[in-house]
Amino acid sequence: VQVRESLSLIEKDRKYVWHHISPYKEEAPPMIVEKGEGSWITDYKGNRYLDAMSGLWCVNVGYGREELAEVAAEQIKKLAYTPMTNSHKSAIELAEKINAMLDDEYVIFYSNSGSDANEVAFKIARQYHQQNGEPNRYKIISRYRAYHGSSMGALSATGQSLRKYKYEPLSAGFIHVSPPDHYRKPDNISVEQYNLLKAREIEETIKFEQKETIAAVIMEPLITGGGVIIPHEVYVQEVERICNRHGVLLIIDEVICGFGRTGKAFGHQHFNIKPDIITMAKGLTSAYLPLSITAIRKEIYEAFKGTEENYHFRHVNTFGGNPAACAVALKNLEIMERENLFKRSEELGKKLLNGLEELKNHPNVGDVRGLGLLAGIEIVEGKETKKPVSNEKIAKLIAAAKAKGLIIGRNGDTVAGHNNILTLSPPLSSTDDDIQFIIKVLKEVFFCE
Ligand code: PMP
After folding, report:
1. Per-residue pLDDT tens for 340-397?
2. Which of 12, 20, 257, 261 has the fewest CB atoms within 10 Å, i.e. the most exposed one?
3. 222 and 86 share a domain?
4. PANTHER family given for it (predicted)?
């Protein structure tokens, strides 16, 4: 016992905690975060950082919101738990609220995480087709580079082989197509043409696989974790048309894009489409408590209505839709509305992109792109070759920003082993000064190092 007590916090962390992804590095131990306020977090030694990733793209209303703590405490005192085989007021009100934010009528299924929400979507898609007399429709199409979660089904839909290959065999029936990464398009076609070609690759895949075997396409409105790939609107609309043409359900993963990240309530609302199923997590509660949603279009839900056993959707999630998380989500949405945060995301996003524009003068900055408060900076060896820089170079940029008090992320074509896109996703509640700080630090990192 004495030995344990004499260990420092950082030593105990190394000894007892298995971190997500990163192995413990002596020269760069993990940050032990103690508190957060607004866009800033403070570690246990008192160092402050602007968290330009909102944790993992999720603390949309910023840190330290007392209202959210209070509403959680009140709800826990009144009713800490009831399973969603029952129901409760916050779950009902939240389902109503989410419907008001969407452009069609949806029924809400609750779980705890983005991965959970996507698993639910896949199971519903498969069962829906069975109940419609098409039991062979089981395959799910998704894109390379996309991330859809870490549980076996969601990982199977994920198109990042580095995250997958050690855990194979994964779930059967998941197929990938290439993403509309028009930064790397051939010179002789337009962005629009390239996007249409990429959408049609989905149609070809459906035909090659026999359309009677395809249950659904899952995609984010824009690929976030795979390196901020923003499609032309013709892409998204064409994918919707293709799905409709072949009786394939369209699942839209709004886990990151939802709740104002891209400057609208939901990312797909930039493209004027009506998804069959929409998954949400992260910004739903701004990560104050775990909660996720699979929103299912009314017509699909109708196929599950009936008294016989085979109409049951066999999926239980003990903590899904727990009362405190639903109450927090409602209050979180109230804050977003009161502070007009979706609009703020759009406006601050423009300021951020404008400020980052200057980075394009750097020989290694191939592209700067973004929508709302979500941005990516693609780092290449040269603008002509577009060859991604090494992961070591990216790690150096991230460390240089951190040394100046700025936390940024990275991602990219991990299929090819590249992580060459710096990512930014600050809280929607960021101040103008916060945005200027991000721009200032990044300019220093690129031009003064
Ligand atoms: N979908 C997307 C687009 C995500 O970015 C993530 C998580 N980063 C997930 C699903 C999985 O969410 P969770 O980590 O809550 O399971």
Report:
1. 999 999 999 999 999 999 999 999 999 999 999 999 999 999 999 999 999 999 999 9
2. 20
3. yes
4. AMINOTRANSFERASE (PTHR43094), AMINOTRANSFERASE CLASS-III (PTHR43094:SF1)
What strands lie across the sheet with 409-411, from one edge to the other?
A: 365-370, 375-379, 421-424, 409-411
| Ligand 1 geometric centre to CA of 115 (Å) | 6
Q: Which domain holds residue 357?
A: 31-61+340-447
Same domain assignment for residues 434 and 373: yes
C-beta separation of 123 from 156 below 8 A = no
Cα(148) to centroid(ligand 1), Å = 5
Q: Assess whether 425 and 334 both reside in one domain.
A: no
- CA of 72 relative to ligand 1 center, distance in Å: 23
149 lines ligand 1 (CB under 6 A): yes
Burial of 419 (0-12, 13-18, 19+ CB in 10 A): buried
Ligand 1 atom closest to the Cα of residue 112 is 15
Q: Is the ipTM of this complex over 0.95?
A: yes
* Ligand 1 proximity of 60 Cβ (cutoff 6 Å): no
Residue 26 lies in a domain: no
- Examine the fold and report which residue of 293, 321, 338 is the final residue of a domain before the chain moves on: 338
Same domain, 329 and 348: no
Encoded tokens for 197: 């070609």
Domain count, the chain: 2
Q: Is 412 close to ligand 1, i.e. is its CB under 6 Å away?
A: no
Q: Is the CB of 54 under 6 A from ligand 1?
A: no
- Rounded-to-integer distance, Cα 101 and Cα 337, Å: 11
Assessment of whether the complete model's pTM goes beyond 0.90: yes
